[in-house]
Specification:
heterodimer; A: alpha+beta; two-stranded parallel sheet; 1 helix; B: 291 residues; FAD/NAD(P)-binding domain; 25% helix; globular
C-alpha cells in the first residue's frame, strides 16, 4: 500500500487524510501546523 | 480550529466560525451537522466603523455560519478519529532516498514514505521542502500575516447588543461573545482579534503591552471597562492570514512525490482549507490511479 506522510493536522491535513484514508496508508504529524486560522472572519 | 480552556471560561481563539459555499464541503460537513458536532450560529451580528455600529444583521436569517460543538476544536477532533496521528512531532527536515525520510525536532526518524504532503503554513512548507520542488517559488511568494487573539473572561455578563462583530478602522478587527455560541458554557467570555495591520506593526512587542492596548480598544468600542475581567490573556498567531487573496493551482509534484495544500493556497478562509485538500485529493487520485 502506498504510504503518505501529511505534515500538519489542521483542517486541510485532517480532510485530506479522511479523503485518502481508506485508499492509502496515511500518517499525520501534528506539531507543524501553527494553525493559519483565524482567517475565517475575513470578509469575503 | 482551536479552543482554549481556562475554566470556567472557554475561548475559540482561532477560527471563529465558517461558511460552506461549495458542494463538496457541504457534503463533507453534513454528517457532522447530523451528529451535532457542527451547528449554525444564529448570532446577532454588527459591523462597526471604529466604535459606531453601522450595520446589523441576524445570522439566523442569513447564510449559515457554522461552529464546532461545544468548541471549534470539536470538528477537528471528530475528523481525527481513526486516523494515524503522531502528536507533538514537529518535522524539521525531509530527505529522499528511494522513499522519503522525515526527521523530527527530537531527532526521531520516520521513514518509508512514498509521498509527503505539507499542510503547514507557506513559510513553514517553504522551509521544509527542497528548492527543486516544482512549486517552490510560488510557495515562497505566499506571504502571511499575523493576528493577536485577546481572551477575556468575566464573573458576570456584560450587556452587549451583539454576539459577533467585524470592526473597521480600529486595531481590533473582530469581537465575539464566545459564551453566546451554541453549546457553550454560559460563563461570560469575550474574544477580540487584532487587525492584521496592528499585528504586523507589533509582532514582536511584549504580549502584556499588546493585551493592555487591545483591552483598551475593546473597552472603547463596547463602552465598557473590560479591565474588570477575571481572566485575561493574549495569543499570537504568527501565520493567520494571507497578505494577498490569490488562488493557486494544486501544488503536486509528480516526479518528487511531494505536494502541499492549505487554506493559504486559495487565499484563506476555513472552507478553503478543505477545498484545497479536496482539489489535491482529486489530482492525487487520478495520478496514483486509485479509485
Amino acid at each position: 500500500m502506498i504510504r503518505v506522510a501529511i505534515i500538519g493536522a489542521g483542517l486541510s491535513g485532517l480532510s485530506l487524510a479522511n479523503l485518502l484514508g481508506h485508499k492509502l496508508d496515511v500518517t499525520l504529524f501534528e506539531k507543524n501546523a501553527q494553525c493559519q486560522w483565524p482567517n475565517v472572519y475575513t470578509p469575503c | 480550529m482551536s479552543t482554549r480552556r481556562a475554566e470556567p471560561h472557554f475561548f475559540d481563539h482561532g477560527a471563529q466560525y465558517f461558511t460552506a459555499r461549495t458542494k463538496p464541503f457541504q457534503q463533507f460537513i453534513q454528517p457532522f451537522i447530523e451528529d451535532g458536532v457542527i451547528k449554525a450560529w444564529p448570532a446577532r451580528y454588527a459591523r462597526f466603523d471604529d466604535d459606531k455600529i453601522v450595520e446589523r444583521k441576524d445570522w439566523g436569517n442569513d447564510e449559515p455560519r457554522y461552529v464546532g460543538m461545544p468548541g471549534m476544536n470539536s470538528f477537528a477532533k471528530a475528523l481525527s478519529k481513526q486516523l494515524n496521528i503522531k502528536f507533538n512531532t514537529k518535522i524539521t527536515s525531509l530527505e529522499k532516498y528511494n522513499k522519503w525520510r522525515l526527521k523530527d525536532a527530537e531527532g526521531g526518524i520516520h521513514e518509508g514514505f512514498d509521498w509527503v504532503v505539507s499542510t503547514a503554513p507557506s513559510p513553514q512548507t517553504s522551509a521544509l521542502f527542497p528548492d527543486f520542488f516544482q512549486y517552490s517559488k510560488d510557495i515562497q511568494g505566499i506571504e502571511m500575516r499575523a493576528c493577536f487573539s485577546l481572551m477575556l473572561g468575566f464573573d458576570h455578563g456584560l450587556n452587549l447588543n451583539f454576539d459577533a462583530a467585524h470592526i473597521y478602522n480600529n486595531d481590533i478587527s473582530w469581537l465575539a461573545v464566545n459564551s453566546n455560541k451554541p453549546g457553550r458554557s454560559n460563563i461570560f467570555s469575550l474574544i477580540a482579534h487584532s487587525s492584521e495591520e496592528f499585528a504586523e506593526r507589533n509582532l514582536e512587542r511584549d504580549l502584556l503591552e499588546i493585551q493592555e492596548h487591545l483591552c483598551g480598544e475593546t473597552g472603547r468600542i463596547i463602552s465598557c471597562d473590560v479591565s474588570i475581567a477575571t481572566f485575561k490573556t493574549v495569543h499570537r498567531w504568527r501565520y493567520a492570514n494571507n497578505v494577498e487573496r490569490k488562488i493557486f493551482p494544486v501544488f503536486l509534484d509528480i516526479d518528487l512525490h511531494l505536494a502541499a495544500c492549505g487554506d493559504w493556497c486559495l487565499g484563506g478562509r476555513v472552507e478553503n482549507a478543505f477545498v484545497s485538500a479536496y482539489n489535491l485529493y482529486k489530482k492525487m487520485k487520478s495520478s496514483l490511479d486509485i479509485t
